[in-house]
Amino acid sequence: MLFEKLAHSGHEEVVFCHNPDAGLRAIIAIHNTILGPALGGLRMWPYPTEEEALEDVLRLSRTMTLKAAVAGLNLGGGKCVILGDPATDKSEALFRSLGRFIESLNGRYITAEDVGIDVSDMEYVFQETDNVVGVHQVHGGSGDPAPFTAYGTIQGIRASLHHRFGNENLADYSFAVQGAGHVGFELVRQLRAQEAKVFVTDIQESSVDRCVEELGAEAVSLDDIYDVEADVFCPSALGGVVNADTIPRFRFKIICGSANNQLADDESGDELNRRGILYAPDYAVNAGGLMNVSIEFEGYNRERAKRMMRTIYDNVGTIFEIARRDSIPTWLAANRLAEQRIDAIGKIKMPYLGHQPHRFPGRKRAY
Ligand code: NAD
User: Fold this and answer.
1) Which of 142, 182, 227 for mutating ligand 1's site (highest number of atoms within 8 Å of CB)?
2) Which residue, 41, 143, 295, 348, has most beta carbons within 10 Å?
3) pLDDT at residue 258 above 80?
4) Is 364 a catalytic residue?
5) From CA 157, how far away is CA 362, in angstroms rounded?
């Protein structure tokens, strides 16, 4: 049953981490390491069942493989989930115990912050293993990735506008931004800085107020965001918001935002294609955060990070071209682009390079 699932999803390895004294129950999923070590965030969530935790970690780690491959990074896909309530179940022992499990994987999996985890939790993990990115700047880390994710999303938006209209001047278009959190607020700020018209919504009224008062965006209610007459829809909150219920309401020409897993299912991507709504695949658009942390291995450098983020424009453009060439929806074109790179690079892994002595010499050669 379990191996059948792994055969279907294509995972290499799944590690169940158990330390009852530390209250640790965690699952590390390593999806694919052909391109390099599996990198992906650590999530802590009170999953109702163990099956749901396993489903989540398998799905998220596969997306990381595709994201890294399309981004041109020498990284594979992985993810870790801790089964527990972040409000009540955190402890030093729990995170250090997990850090030791990660260390035992000898660099095959590298972790980072994700939902339910904050910087102080990562500091404990970091005490037990070097295989952590997104650590605080005082440790030579890259800090908050959100502004970079937003900057990368802008590159995806420009590529989409160029493909759809042949004009990528942001000031000529209107945008509906769902979610004004870490990434969403930055996205609104960067769009407004280019004098674009922006509609915004969030369940936190104060976040919307900030966008209105500080940035000059226009507030809309939570449900009305799907009906807004705007050129571009930018999901920047939850996944699954592009679905059979919302699609018939859309008057958008383009969907391009930072949220992970925007399509409820592949059929929703097919339906957008049928309706002529251009979908910029989420994992190609929101790779800025991953690109940013990947630079930590070589010694973090902000300018290099921004340069790398600008490649998102070309990556998204390439996906649109594949979709046009092969007459397929863009979500499928993105998957193909990722799979082709993994396949091609997998085939250059000979000859054997002999003994490679250093794994993390000053964090300069992780891959
Ligand atoms: P965040 O938690 O800071 O912001 C999410 C915002 O969405 C919050 O303000 C929340 O109130 C709001 N929200 C939740 N449900 C909503 C709803 N139904 N309608 C409107 N607003 C709602 O998270 P973030 O770091 O800004 O990430 C946003 C999205 O981008 C997530 O899907 C995340 O997985 C993805 N992402 C983030 C990064 C990053 O660098 N932070 C990188 C890649 C992908």
Assistant:
1) 182
2) 41
3) yes
4) no
5) 36
Predicted local confidence at residue 363, as pLDDT: 55
Q: What is the C-alpha to C-alpha distance for residues 221 and 146, in angstroms, rounded to an integer? A: 24
Neighbours of 226 (CB within 10 A): 21
pLDDT tens-digit readout, 71-126: 999 999 999 999 999 999 999 999 999 999 999 999 999 999 888 898 889 999 99
Q: Model pTM?
A: 0.91
pLDDT range class, residue 362, cuts 50, 70, 90: low
C-alpha 366 – ligand 1 centre gap (Å): 29
pLDDT single digits (tens) 305-329: 989 999 999 999 999 999 999 999 9
| Domains in the chain, CATH or no CATH each | 11-65+75-132 (3.40.50.10860), 146-342 (3.40.50.720)
Q: How far is the CA of 262 from the centre of ligand 1 (A)?
A: 11
The one catalytic residue in 67, 79, 90, 197 is: 79
Indicate the top mutation candidate among 60, 149, 155, 189 to test ligand 1's pocket, ranked by most ligand atoms within 8 A of CB.
149
